[in-house]
Amino acid sequence: MGNIRLLTDEVASQVAAGEVVERPASVIKELVENSLDAGARRITVEFVRGGVAKMRVTDDGAGMDRQDALLSLERHATSKIRNADDLARVGTMGFRGEAIPSIASVSRFRMITRPHDDSSATEIRVAGGKVESIADAGAPHGTLIEVEGLFYNVPARRKFLRGEETESAHIVHQMQVLALAHPHVAFTLLRDGRRLLQTAATSDLGVRIRDLLGADFFGRLAPLESFVEHGIELSGFLSKPGEGRPNREQQYFILNGRVIQCPAISQPLREAYAEALPRGKQPLAVLRLAMDPLAFDCNVHPAKREIRLHQPEQLRQAVFLAARRFLEHLAHPKQERPPIASVSSIPVRHVPEQAFVPPPQRELPATLVDARPSGADAFRLMGCLDARWVIMEGKEGLLLMDVRAASERILFEALRREAAEGSVSAQRLLLPVVVELSTKDCAWIMGHLSALTAAGFLMEPFGGNTFRLEALPACLAERDPRDAILSLCESLKATGAAMPHEPALEQMVRSIARLAALQRFSYDESRARRLVNELFRCELPYACPQGRPTIIQWAFGELERKFGRTQ
């Protein structure tokens, strides 16, 4: 008896502060979000010594009268929720009713606030959660909140803060994502009196991205036109093919004005870039999403960084389709293209023997006789480097085309198109070959036999761990049959482990293209032009199926700088 006691208000506030206030950047986030909810159009943030010594947020928003200012310091007080149903329809940045009293309970806190229709402002000072003074003050409309000595009365919490540079970096990052999500608001950030960031209000997200993240980052992106699927609207900027980084640090997802982390967005985005980025790379993104507030719950995390979705599969599909359309449009901006057939829906059937045709030229499918003109005519072919790269001159600079990557892209799209039509070009062997496999390889082939058949392999079990191989995809006709099937097994097992959700036939044609691609190139201008022409007829010409670039460019200006010329 007597072991359970009610916490005092002071201790309860400090416990609540532990959920909301992790570090100085958390304070900045909560205060700036309140300013945004107040309709501010100009927000200035100042901090000293990593924010531990002092933080100040000033806005030109609605402000509060004295009664509301005092209520804002009470726990569970909020202007944004009236009943439990409102929790499901949150349309504001902050709503928990914990931030201001939590911050005030672990700092020396000062608030000066004035609504538009009041002649004077109200100043309130709080120390460790206790109100010290309330007075009239002269100030413009809006709100100023100053926080000094964060965690001064909770030393156990203060010792977990990092160094000044680290805490400053967290504040700068927090301000960047807030400014990114709200380009219509002008932001200013000062550290120790020195201006670090100043952005003008704009309706153009691209301008805000360039101002915040730099021209280099912005230059690696392209705009995503508004796309709607399952009632979800997506827009923003995504990375061009071949542009990525090893982690997701440069992915910004903005849901209804709030920057969030969400696997249901990042995972399908990466899947959409399977052919446009190498493995281990993540696409860059500043992606805005608009959803019905009833479709997700943003109250599952104290800092509202994560969400819970009621139908996550719909969001995954919307992101994947938007990114795929973006990549297709980037490759062919002026062409109306039919939607790409889903490989998972391609009918798998045994190809009859009259369907086997002689193999095309090894270097390229011979389909250029009546092909329409392409962008290749814009380049002057200049030769070949180390039998691996075609050298070209374009209007903007020097280009190198990777022969292997280009060949791989061409073969992949040709195979995928044939598989979709159920007529993969295959070459019947003069004499069937009996291939003996390991137990694991045998089990793998048995599980994927229909997909192998659809991709151009004609094989059947021949007892034990052996298979009778009668035909190969035409593009592999010059390879040793046993080596081809073993190499394909190894490639596909690795691909399946890295991309378990990709359909087996898609993995199959990707691996076949990699095995069949040109390794080296004996230069001939007509052959090189055919290769360039065929590449630019592909749906995604700028990256191989593994995501590596097919063409890289050095602009004339960059070459001049490398030679020390300034003009």
Task: Describe what you observe in this structure.
By secondary structure, the protein is α+β, with helices and mostly antiparallel strands. It folds into three domains: 9-199, Histidine kinase-like ATPase, C-terminal domain (Heat Shock Protein 90), CATH 3.30.565; 205-331, Ribosomal Protein S5, domain 2, CATH 3.30.230.10; 353-553, MutL, C-terminal domain, regulatory subdomain (Ribosomal Protein S8, Chain: A, domain 1). 33% of the residues lie in helices and 24% in strands. It has 17 helices and 24 strands. The chain has an eight-stranded mixed sheet with strand order 5-4-3-6-2-1-7-8. The chain has a five-stranded mixed sheet with strand order 9-10-15-12-13, with helices on both faces. Strands 18-19-20-24 form a four-stranded antiparallel sheet. It starts with 8 loop residues before the first helix and ends in a 5-residue tail after the last helix.
